[in-house]
Amino acid sequence: MPGDGVGREVVKGATAVLEAVGQRFGHEFEFEYANIGGAAIDESNNPLPNETLKLCKQSDAVFLGAVGGPKWDSLPSHMRPERGLLAIRKELGLFANLRPVIGFHSLLHSSPLKPEIAENVNLMIVRELTGGLYFGKPSERRGENQESVVDTLQYTRKEIERIVEKAFELALIRNKKLTSVDKANVLESSRMWREIVNEKASLYPQVEVEHMYVDAAAMKLISRPKDFDVVVTENLFGDILSDEASMITGSLGMLPSASLTEDGFGLYEPVHGSAPDIAGFNKANPMAMILSAALMLKYSFNLREEAESIEQAVQEVLNAGYRTSDLQSVGSTVVGTEQMINIIVQHVE
Amino acid sequence: MPGDGVGREVVKGATAVLEAVGQRFGHEFEFEYANIGGAAIDESNNPLPNETLKLCKQSDAVFLGAVGGPKWDSLPSHMRPERGLLAIRKELGLFANLRPVIGFHSLLHSSPLKPEIAENVNLMIVRELTGGLYFGKPSERRGENQESVVDTLQYTRKEIERIVEKAFELALIRNKKLTSVDKANVLESSRMWREIVNEKASLYPQVEVEHMYVDAAAMKLISRPKDFDVVVTENLFGDILSDEASMITGSLGMLPSASLTEDGFGLYEPVHGSAPDIAGFNKANPMAMILSAALMLKYSFNLREEAESIEQAVQEVLNAGYRTSDLQSVGSTVVGTEQMINIIVQHVE
Ligand SMILES: CC(C)[C@H](C(=O)O)[C@@H](O)C(=O)O
Ligand SMILES: CC(C)[C@H](C(=O)O)[C@@H](O)C(=O)O
Questions:
Q1: Which amino acid residue places its CA nearest to atom 11 of ligand 2?
Q2: What top-level class would CATH report for the domain B112-119+148-249?
Q3: Is pLDDT of A74 > 90?
Q4: Quick one: pLDDT at residue B124?
């Protein structure tokens, strides 16, 4: 689902790179396309058409580019492109959003952080994706003259348990440290979250667990990002913290993500949005989407070597000095989206 | 109200510095003390005793150090130190929390951000302080076996209007740019917030207004902090973003805050917490509290010159190389809390 804006440009990068992976390792990938977000509203007045959902359910994995743009900003809320994104997450049960953040050595120039802070960062934000304020009811205006408004932060015990378990499992195969982020000094939902993390902790004695308030986490993520391994948090905190953490890498254009169901089915999308300001100008950074393809190979198909061939190609291309304009710095070679895709394809080959 | 932990140490700094200001400019400050938070729980089983509240109401302005600590962490939620803080904000009607963030030249070494990013930053976060998820009801466990939990993000139109107006007024006397931060692509409360900002904007044609999603703001605050002048946002977003922004200055120990009522009555507190890990060791940075005293002189007493004498003293002391341990860097002179207070007092004198 290319979606809107730069989504359409970067999805091409993922498919091209997968074709190259297929050639090199002897696999064949079959691609089918469907609309979501603004493109789907334009076509069928529905940000998530039934056919799109059906096609996703029949697929082995799903790519999503990005949704949204000013064209659809004044539509009523149930008809906005973001509805499509939220609906597909919910409909497919994609509760676990994995957002790895890796400090690429060759991108240290592009980060607003000092090199000694950003270098060698390797953390993973595990964001709960189908609960919290994003889906809680009521979410409405109230009173005769609509003089008040509420949104609801809602979780069931089960929803918290499964995301916390997922995070522990990931910590086990990584550096065995889990930071759980909440606002337990204010929110009842955070107190329940913290209790559940403590319960599960006894099942994973090898994993070191710490609790951190979300305000403190927003500081530590940029002052001591190397202290983190796996970070688990609820939906909105995860949204904010992962965008913030993207700055470690120098650009939101570098961050891939995987969204998984309980059965391990996955949707893969860049953390960045549709970037309407640069859409159509061959300027978007396709690396977040291409790295999302690598995550797909790992999580959906267990093709580790193939996934690494992509990650290595991205590394090499960065080391060779190629940059899209979001990352440019003195001495680098700035290329457009298509050229960047081609260079990465060549390196995979 | 010194409160708990380092709160007790830093409040001494504010009173000492005000005594010096009094001597130099010919004012007399009268101080009265009261308990809040953990100290109040210990004394009277109530994180905000009635006498404390009464004393605050009789005062011309209020200082608060910080509340909380591990000693009280296992108490039930209505008996935790943070309750005292939230209750006093609510009881006094302190809806407008002003958190100025200034990139001190002499502290560029301490910031995780590159000097060219952090230098000359001068922004003000205006955080709504008595609404949103912090006070919305219901906030409770649900179901026979407490298998779910809700918190409520709640605002009235009036609550949003008054904080937005306050932010416009501040933008008018600053650099005339207002960034309103929300999550209008997901939350109904944010959509109402955005509407109100747009309504008020027509009354302040001199102020340039932009809307930004909270995830994007979390990125921009550290990648392009100089682009901001006044940032207005709801309670929890303001909590997260202001802690994040503190990193621009190198330490949470540098950030003062003023919390104001509709009548202009003010409570002044550092943005940092009670820091139980260093409490009692004469290590805390008193500058956030001392700079909060400067805010009090400005906002509660309209004593501009006096306020500047404090801000200038802090500048001078930093330029002279004195640092508390949160800020230390090569070549600086590390001093304890008390020594730092004395040096600043001398400079004010
Ligand atoms: C577009 C928006 C609804 C979405 C979110 O908040 O989840 C985006 O910011 C993301 O992080 O995927
Ligand atoms: C202690 C806590 C309840 C408080 C808050 O979240 O408001 C603190 O973080 C702050 O920013 O003043």
A1: B239
A2: alpha beta
A3: no
A4: 98
Helical segments of chain B, H only: 6-25, 38-44, 50-58, 81-92, 115-118, 157-173, 188-201, 214-223, 235-246, 287-299, 304-319, 337-348
| Chain A residues within 8 A of B236 when measuring between CB atoms | 183, 186
Residue B109 C-alpha, separation from nearest chain A C-alpha, in angstroms: 10
The Å distance, Cα B271 to ligand 2 centre, comes to 8
DSSP assignment letter at B126: E
- pLDDT, tens only, B291-334: 999 999 999 999 999 999 999 999 999 999 999 999 977 889 99
pLDDT digits 0-9 by tens, B250-275: 889 999 999 999 999 999 999 999 99
Residues 6+ apart with CB under 8 A from B346: none
Q: How many residues does chain A have?
A: 349
Annotated binding residue A27: no
Q: Do domains A1-100+253-349 and A112-249 have the same CATH topology?
A: yes
The dihedral through the CA atoms of A295, A296, A300, A305 has a sign that is negative
- Which amino acid belongs to residue B278? I
Atom of ligand 2 nearest to the CA of B257: 12
Q: What is the pLDDT of residue B331?
A: 87
**Tens digits of residue pLDDT in B46-104:** 999 999 999 999 999 999 999 999 999 888 888 899 999 999 999 999 999 999 999 99
Which residues on chain B are in Cβ contact (under 8 Å) with A215? 239-240, 242-244
What's the pLDDT score for residue B73? Answer: 83
Asked if residues A170 and A203 have their Cβ atoms less than 8 Å apart, the reply is no
Ligand 1 pocket, CB under 6 A: A 82, 85, 239, 273; B 185-186, 215
- Which pLDDT does position B268 carry in this prediction? 98
Ligand with an atom nearest the CA of residue B47: 2
What superfamily would CATH give domain A112-249? Answer: Isopropylmalate Dehydrogenase (3.40.718.10)
Token couple for B123: 């922004």
Contact call for residues A128 and A96 (beta carbons, < 8 A): yes
Q: Which fold has domain A1-100+253-349?
A: Isopropylmalate Dehydrogenase (3.40.718)
The ranges assigned to domains in chain B are: 1-107+251-349, 112-119+148-249
Task: Place A325 in a pLDDT band, splitting at 50, 70 and 90.
Answer: very high
Enzyme catalytic residues of A: 134, 183, 215, 239, 243
Q: Which residue puts its alpha carbon closest to atom 1 of ligand 2?
A: B82
Query: What CATH number does the domain located at B1-107+251-349 have?
Result: 3.40.718.10
Q: Are strands A256-260 and A266-270 parallel, antiparallel or unpaired?
A: antiparallel
The pLDDT, as a whole number, for residue B75 is: 86
Q: What is the pTM of this model?
A: 0.97
Contact B148/A157, CB-based, under 8 Å?
yes
SS3 state of residue B322: strand
